């Protein structure tokens, strides 16, 4: 018997089995009487036999009253009835962490869903909640992290510990880009959170986009759109918790979250059904409290780093959309994908002029920054002259910069376009950019 088994038995013996009962269920909440528990604790709700493993359903305590608890289900509520037995577990949600998770696909609560061996005994189990490293103990973002995507590594360079948003509408290539980055990055470990996607999209992502190569040194946490909102919400924190553990071992982790918008929507459902008032466009205040809490967990630690890449849905160019707005204010950089480029077949559909990395100068050598600035200047000149050129109103010779940009345009476009299978090492990308902008 392992030490943890002995400890578990000792704990169980010291805690008399005390059960309560379900007294009602409405919307997303379940009322329980007859037991005490702390906010955040997990209780097991079963119909008949009560005890470890007999829980039909796990639920989290979200509110306390003098004589009852309000719980929110972490699973399907069907089958729960008034009088169902409730057993407190005496602890908040426990999630697996560690190297045993590499190459695995987990559900929103950290249980394997890939048909592989169980994690019990292989992984370490920890509380979901952690203390976010204090700002002053965090090292500064100063080392580049490459994605293997030329347009990003040169014109929107990321640093280890940076948090970037990928802003895009649906169907413009977010998931494809995330998979490409997963395969191309030089991060030690990648953790992917797929939150609120449809089941079909998830299969496609895992089997076609990511493939076996993308699963190496990668952990995937999935909560599809049909999961209860609390599970979708927790999934984002579970993925982040797994990344935090790798960081605390001194690794450089890339955390990819698709999407922060759907995570916010899950928090909205949870908040509203717990009785919060809707504030900004139907989002209750807890949504705007959750977002910085989640995003601040990424970043550098005393050792290691989590570089966070969060996709943000922007529909119909609505930049006042409160979630996109809030995300932009918290993140230290953003990548914009445009539908216009996607429909023109320009992939990855990154609008580099609209994309910015706030750590670019801290992680890039000055001579390379100069090349990047020159490339932006040329692309900017092209964009500004585009309309004139299209209607034939531009006369060659009227602006030397535009003339040079037009000559270099095919090379610049060839540089920025990159097929999904292609990974370019950053040095190679910088050399190619240097050759283009200097005409050598
Ligand atoms: N790099 C790419 N090369 C070619 N086609 C792409 C690329 N990225 C996206 N696409 C096309 O766009 C579609 C939607 O991409 P996807 O990544 O699923 O978008 P999103 O996640 O933003 O909804 C894909 O099915 C594919 O046809
Ligand atoms: Mg997608």
Automatic annotation (TrEMBL):
Belongs to the ATPase alpha/beta chains family. GO terms for molecular function: ATP binding; ATP hydrolysis activity; protein-exporting ATPase activity; proton-transporting ATP synthase activity, rotational mechanism. F-type ATPases have 2 components, CF(1) - the catalytic core - and CF(0) - the membrane proton channel. CF(1) has five subunits: alpha(3), beta(3), gamma(1), delta(1), epsilon(1). CF(0) has four main subunits: a(1), b(1), b'(1) and c(9-12). It comes from Klenkia soli. SMART domains: AAA (SM00382). It catalyses: ATP + H2O + cellular proteinSide 1 = ADP + phosphate + cellular proteinSide 2. Keywords: ATP synthesis, ATP-binding, Cell membrane, CF(1), Cytoplasm, Hydrogen ion transport, Ion transport, Membrane, Nucleotide-binding, Protein transport, Translocase, Transport. Its main location: cytoplasm. Pfam families: ATP-synt_ab, ATP-synt_ab_N, T3SS_ATPase_C. GO terms for cellular component: cytoplasm; proton-transporting ATP synthase complex; type III protein secretion system complex. Residues 160-342 form the AAA+ ATPase domain. CDD domains: ATPase_flagellum-secretory_path_III (cd01136). This is Flagellum-specific ATP synthase.
């Amino acid at each position: 018997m392992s030490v943890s088994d002995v400890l578990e038995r000792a704990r169980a013996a010291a805690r008399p089995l005390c059960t309560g009962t379900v007294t009602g269920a409405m919307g997303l909440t379940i009322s329980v009487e007859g037991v005490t528990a702390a906010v955040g604790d997990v209780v097991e709700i079963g119909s008949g036999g009560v005890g470890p493993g007999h829980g039909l359903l796990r639920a989290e305590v979200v509110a306390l009253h003098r004589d009852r608890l309000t719980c929110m289900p972490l699973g399907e509520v069907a089958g729960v009835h008034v009088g169902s037995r409730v057993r407190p577990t005496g602890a908040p949600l426990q999630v697996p962490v560690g190297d045993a998770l590499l190459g695995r696909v987990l559900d929103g609560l950290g249980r394997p869903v890939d048909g592989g061996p169980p994690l019990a005994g292989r992984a370490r189990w920890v509380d979901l909640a952690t203390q976010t490293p204090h700002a002053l103990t965090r090292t500064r973002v100063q080392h580049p992290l490459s994605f293997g995507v030329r347009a990003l590594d040169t014109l929107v360079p990321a640093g280890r510990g940076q948090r970037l948003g990928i802003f895009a509408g649906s169907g413009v290539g977010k998931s494809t880009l995330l998979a490409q980055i997963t395969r191309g990055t030089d991060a030690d470990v990648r953790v992917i959170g797929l939150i609120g996607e449809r089941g079909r999209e998830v299969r496609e992502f895992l089997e076609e986009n990511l493939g076996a190569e993308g699963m190496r040194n990668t952990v995937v946490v999935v909560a599809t759109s049909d999961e209860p909102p609390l599970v979708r919400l927790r999934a984002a924190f579970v993925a982040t918790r797994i990344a935090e553990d790798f960081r605390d071992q001194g690794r450089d982790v890339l955390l990819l979250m698709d999407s922060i918008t759907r995570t916010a929507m899950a928090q909205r459902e949870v908040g509203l059904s717990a009785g919060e008032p809707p504030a900004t466009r139907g989002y209750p205040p807890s949504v705007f409290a959750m977002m910085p809490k989640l995003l601040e967990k990424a970043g550098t630690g005393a050792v290691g780093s989590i570089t966070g890449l969060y996709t943000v849905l922007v529909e119909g160019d609505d930049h006042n959309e409160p979630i996109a707005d809030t995300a932009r204010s918290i993140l230290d950089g953003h990548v914009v994908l445009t539908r216009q480029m996607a429909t023109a077949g320009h992939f990855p559909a990154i609008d580099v002029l609209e994309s910015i990395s706030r750590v670019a100068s801290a992680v890039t050598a000055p001579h390379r920054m100069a090349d990047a600035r020159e490339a932006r200047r040329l692309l900017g000149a092209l964009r500004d002259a585009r309309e004139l050129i299209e209607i034939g109103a531009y006369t060659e010779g009227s602006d030397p910069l535009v003339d040079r940009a037009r000559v270099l345009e095919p090379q610049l476009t060839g540089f920025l376009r990159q097929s999904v299978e292609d990974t370019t090492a950053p040095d190679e990308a910088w050399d190619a950019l240097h050759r283009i902008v200097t005409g050598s």
